[in-house]
DNA sequence: ATATGTGATGCACAAATGTGCATGTCCGAC
DNA sequence: GTCGGACATGCACATTTGTGCATCACATAT
């Protein structure tokens, strides 16, 4: 019964996938209806008789750029995808995929993982494919925002990563920005929230995006803050942010009143994490990435060739600022 | 340039084959047209980024039946596909496929290969998949018929096998039945034909079907012969044929006037070939297969469980005929 | 400047594939 | 027997995919 099927399924699969006959043609040849062939093919796929494998393109990477990044900014590592991507959408997906492929190496031996949020991070989560479960705990690196789609919610992202890794996660039930410094203090001292925030001091790994201040994160974050805050940011010449913490193109943290209300992992805290992986690319983020690198906030960068070239060029170009 | 594509192709392939999005959905996500996705997918397949592999069903075989066949009829080997196939069409394809898979083992070290003709043989040829070329010479085992489709022509079949194996072939330009014994003699002594016919004495391997006389080979052969010949065959109680040579259910060659006109490898000649592989199955061929086995004309049988059970049962049942 | 060719692009249409459903079939329980 | 359920079958229809073609962009030769 089943053995008949085995050979038959294999035969049909061969005719369909190897000889590229249509289901109708196979049906005619075998004296079976097209529908039957269709269902048998489905069964063949289910039973694993047909195995579709995707060969990852021989990981061509821009080793020289990676080495230069490491040298120049004291990184523990870098991965630079070759080529130039004109579409932001495509680039995000490519970087997300690349990050997902690297993830097994990155999380190896890690217990507490902090996760940022953003579209590229989400793309990464969509492509994670891990065999054995890892006993990790995933925590968000900052509070949430209510005015964005559910799938971008920090808690949804940590949940997703934990699920993909087979570990646990901690959700944060605090806003990324409190109404006042006092409100922040109150919120952060709340036991449930404190237990998450306290974990920021004992992370083994943080995975973050890099925002380019004005219009960052689909500008959802920017929509959250007041006009005065925006002016502050502009005046401070913020080049970008990591974990919502702004810094200038030299890597100096921006002194903003906003900071006192932020419920987010701090830059100095971040520097103490053994491994901070940033995923970021795109011409618009050039200044932001450069700032993050100069500030030594990140220790591993996943980006693309065109962007990295821009970053390195910009670094050469206005290196005098640093000396000044 | 190409490197951009590599990652992108892989990404698209992943979305399509792993996440099972439609081409349209992928296009929307990436901001590319459906057509572009379509073409990139084609390219991904061409470049081997998508690899579709067919896992042959764990070669479940009826070892016990194979052993019994070997023991009972002194075969060098047998392969019995499990199950019962109600459709002749399906059975032919399954047997052809099975034979094609066995072929590499069967031809190993062989130089001169004789090939019969028939629908199952053709199916086998359709599935041959060999890596390195074999230095073989393929010859037909009997003459041709003009009243059948071109793809069933003996010369087409030997050509096809030779092509699949990467070897050479000899075509025969003689009819399977001459008009008279004298005509046969003349034809066979023609140098070009003789050189092929002479090879029947130095074959290392023959691959044949088994016909069940009346209505054999889509009855094309039967349409070729006269009414008197048919009566002769009926009177001689022919059970089947190999290479057009008729025999009874006991395996005795039929003494027919027709034989004197046949341009086909003889049964005694066949017995001298080190390895004769027959591919045959189906209830209707029970008697024919039994006759071929009893006559020891074949040394290797590829068939199916249901048929073999019938054959063995029939053998037990009328074994007394042999003793008589 | 003007031809010329090569390749990318998207469209209309054709072909192939997938799916919910009504019907039919088989088989065991009662 | 007959009832009920699980499952197979084929159909109409919806979705998805594939393809020939006209168009356009761009580069190279004339």
- Anisotropy-based shape of chain A: elongated
Mean pLDDT of chain A: 90
Q: Could you state the oligomeric state of the chains shown?
A: homodimer
Instruction: Using the CA coordinates, give the radius of gyration of chain A.
Output: 24 Å
DSSP strand content of chain A: 5-15%
- End-to-end distance of chain A, in Å? 82 Å
How does the major sheet of chain A shape up?
7 strands, parallel
Biggest interface reads:
A-B, 44 and 44 residues
CATH class of the largest domain in chain A: Alpha Beta
Report the order of strands and helices of chain A. HHHEHEHEHEHEHHEHHEEHEHEHH
Structural class of chain A: alpha/beta
Number of domains of chain A: 2
Defining key terms:
homodimer; alpha/beta; 324 residues; elongated; Rossmann fold; 15 helices; seven-stranded parallel sheet; DNA-binding
Description:
Two copies of one chain form a homodimer. Chain A is α/β, with parallel strands linked by helices and 324 residues long. Chain A is built from 15 helices and ten strands. Chain A has two domains: 2-46, Arc Repressor Mutant, subunit A (Orthogonal Bundle), CATH 1.10.10; 63-323, Rossmann fold (3-Layer(aba) Sandwich). Chain A has a seven-stranded parallel sheet with strand order 2-10-9-6-3-4-5, with helices on both faces. In chain A, helix 1 crosses helix 3 (34-46), helix 2 (23-30) packs across helix 3 and helix 13 (286-294) packs across helix 14. The N and C termini of chain A lie far apart (82 Å). The interface between A and B is large, with 44 and 44 residues. The first copy, chain A, binds a DNA duplex (30 and 30 nucleotides) through helix 3.
């Amino acid at each position: 019964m089943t053995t008949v099927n085995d050979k038959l399924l294999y035969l049909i699969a061969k005719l369909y996938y190897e000889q590229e006959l249509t289901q109708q043609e196979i049906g005619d040849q075998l004296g079976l209806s097209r529908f039957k062939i269709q269902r048998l093919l489905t069964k063949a796929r289910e039973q694993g008789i047909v195995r579709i494998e995707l060969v990852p393109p021989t990981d061509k990477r821009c080793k020289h750029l990676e080495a230069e990044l490491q040298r120049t900014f004291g990184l523990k590592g870098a991965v630079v995808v070759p080529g130039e991507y004109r579409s932001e959408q495509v680039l995000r997906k490519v970087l997300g995929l690349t990050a997902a492929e690297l993830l097994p190496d990155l999380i190896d031996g890690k217990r507490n993982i902090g996760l940022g949020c953003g579209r590229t991070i989400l793309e990464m989560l969509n492509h994670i494919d891990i065999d054995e479960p890892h006993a990790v705990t995933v925590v968000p690196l900052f509070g949430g925002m209510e005015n964005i789609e559910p799938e971008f919610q920090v808690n949804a992202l940590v949940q997703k990563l934990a699920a993909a890794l087979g570990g646990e996660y901690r959700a944060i039930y605090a806003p990324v920005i409190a109404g006042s410094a006092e409100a922040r203090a109150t919120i952060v001292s709340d036991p449930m929230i404190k237990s998450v925030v306290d974990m920021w001091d004992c992370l083994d790994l943080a995975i973050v995006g890099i925002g380019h201040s004005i219009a960052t994160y689909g500008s959802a974050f920017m929509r959250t803050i007041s006009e005065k805050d925006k002016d502050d940011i502009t005046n401070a010449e913020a080049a970008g942010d990591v974990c919502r913490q702004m810094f200038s193109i030299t890597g100096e943290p921006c002194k903003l009143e906003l900071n006192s209300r932020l419920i987010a992992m701090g830059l100095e805290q971040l520097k103490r994490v053994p491994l901070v992986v940033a995923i970021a690319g795109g011409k618009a983020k050039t200044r932001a990435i450069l700032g993050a690198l100069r500030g030594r906030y990140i220790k591993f960068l996943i980006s693309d060739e065109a962007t990295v070239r821009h970053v390195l060029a910009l670094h050469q170009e206005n290196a005098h600022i640093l000396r000044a």
